[in-house]
Amino acid sequence: MPRWIKSFRLGLVALFTAWIAGPAGAAAYVASPAHGPQQFAAFPATPYRELEPDVRERYWDAEQADGCGRRIDVLIDAYVEKYPRFAHFRNDPAWRQAWLRGVGLSTYIVEVRCHFADPLLTRMVRAPLHWLDLHSGLPVWCGRWSSREADPELRELIAEMIPLAMRHEMPGLVDRFIAATRQHRTIGIDAFVALNPDVALYLVERRKRQVDAGLPLPSFTFEDAETSDGLYLDSLPPKRRAAVMAAVETGDYRSVLETTAACEPREDFLKSVGAGER
User: Signal peptide span per the entry (predicted)?
Assistant: First the structure.
């Protein structure tokens, strides 16, 4: 049987199955928590830079209006226009959340920052003063949790940030982690997060790849990152650096976090890298 006939028959079977299932059957599949974000794997989104000019113009207008929800609406509208099978679920809250995690955190990592990262950063900026312990040089998280006692709400906030920075490599949070580390190590500002050099190296190198792929530049320069007093990437032994760089190649952030050293108070850390007290 010719290949085109087989393809045609398979197409008819798929259409008939969808017709039998109807909207209710499709809804049960798409909105089912059992499937979640992975349901979109077979339906890749169009990257922002490749969207039609009118779509990017609408996104720009929404961004100027500072409307996070409106920006996401523009992206979802473009997606359901490409895949009409999802149009029925455009306004379904469960489906939208699944879309944000399945499509937003992969294809639109910069564009959905307003939904994921900005609220967390706002909470961090408005952190209650009782969260701060100005006499403690020990960060709450350095690549692993420290022994420092911290407000449960603060730990919850950091726990929400970690996967967005480490797994999804959301630029705004990666840059915030880097900035917090440098401030803590150079001028002694109390830090919720101060990365160990191997964890910092991993994020810096992965961030370089994002820039090469056209994502926005970081708030730090890569040249400064390598020799920065705040990051001390040059303090890593050759064997550890090689292991981290191997993880960078594959995106295996877990192997870095699982093998990074315990967190140290600022003074002890500076001595361990031969910097002394600054």
Answer: 1-26
